[in-house]
What does this fold into?
Amino acid sequence: MSAELMDTGLNLILFAYVGVLIWLSLRPLP
Amino acid sequence: MKPNPLLVTALSICAGIALWGIVDPGGFGAIAAGIVEIQFNSRGWFIMLEASSLLFVAIYLALSRFGSIRLGPDGSEPEFSTPAWIAMLFAAGMGVGLLFYGVAEPLTHFDELGQFSDPPEAAAYALFVTYLNWGFHAWAIYGVVGLVIAYFAFRRGRALLLSAPLLDSFGERRRVRALGWLFDLLSIVAIAVGLAGSLAMGVFQIQTGLAGLIGVGDPGLLTVPVFVVMCVGFAIPLRRDLGDGMAKLSNLAMLIAIGLMVYLLVLGPTSYLMNTIVSGFGRYVFGVLPAGFATAGFFDREVVDWFQGWTLNYMIWWLAWSPFVGVFIARISRGRTIREFLVGVVVAPTIFSVFWFGVFGGLGFFDAFRQDGALSVINRENLDATTFALLERFPLDLVTRTATIIAASLFVVTSVVSAGFTLAMIATGGDENPSPRVRTVWGGILAALGLAMIFVGDISLVRSIIAVSAIAFVFIVPVLVVCLFRSLRRETSE
It folds into this structure.
């Protein structure tokens, strides 16, 4: 159970990271 | 002199890792292996996706309108002639790894895959996987990181640092500066640990070769002398500037390695080896893109372990070394266009790998199919010994084995010296001529980390340790790519 939780947690971090990347690329140029 | 916080922090972290590895090598290796297993199990898909995406980024940039942008002011000329530049790219890609794995890696895959398919198919796939691990993906990772460093240094006038793209794209704000500082710190740790791993691998191979040559039964007895000689070898050039002496030594190592390959190709079963190279190349070129997305998800534990221990580990390994190799290839590429840069960096060294593993792997398969298969047995027992066992089957083996030991030593010494320079440069905030004192301190740290890796003793654990040090790069490299695209867009919209 805890291994599955950790797996889900690690992957959620990845999804959030991909979200941040997309957000950074879409920000207007300075 | 004002203490530099980046230098002090980086030195403390690296010294701490080295101390831990020396005091408790068993625990150190086990923890690294545990972290890597968790990472690989839950994030393997992301690492493969990233490596493949970087290959597509390289292809896109080379083909798009951005390809004609120069890595320098408009109208600037390349610093080196194209043949000299390609020779230097080969030198960047060569190293003790090729000497170590040339025959050992294809044979190991052949052994593993032979349990699931018939031998000819296993051999073909073994070579394919070796090409996948050492080919376009590896060089796309190096190429894209090198391109980011070169673009921001030569076109935007920044330092040769990983923090430069961030500061340039998102402004010199406090949060951005803090993140940039962290990028530089993490690149130092990854370079130091990666190079120390390479040092340990070199020592393992040199001691095995030397033990065979001078008739010492236990190669372990030679660890200390070999290690000390290596340390003296890189301490001298770190203390004083030898001008282009290091470049000459690195060229000598490269010539020895190429000479060895040609010697084996000519004296070995030449047509058999050419058959291996041509069929392996065709299979690789037409299968490389889908294979880059493979994650071995549907297979049982043994295949998954094999995949994680090799392909996934290699992709992390290339990420670990990307700041080091990236700085090197950036430095020699001032004035080239993005298109030239990417085609040169991704294609030329890959072709070399195709020949190299085709010859060495082909000789391994020749032994398995047409001779007694003794090489596979040796390979199963001790990866360090495979290259030397192969050379023993050819005439003048005393000469070739000695040459291999010399080349391995030169590769180790020149790459540690180069790493000492790069680490000192990053840690001093981009000073391109760091003081001998800082360089020597880094040489000492690399030696201590190398000693820790030697104490860990097991090559697969050493690979896990390198992988842990590089995990941060899985996250850093995509940010660098975003920075690059933002700046390219800004430049072309102006």
About this structure: Chain A touches chain B through eleven residues (CB under 8 Å). The longest helix of chain A spans residues 2-26. Chain A has one helix and no strands.
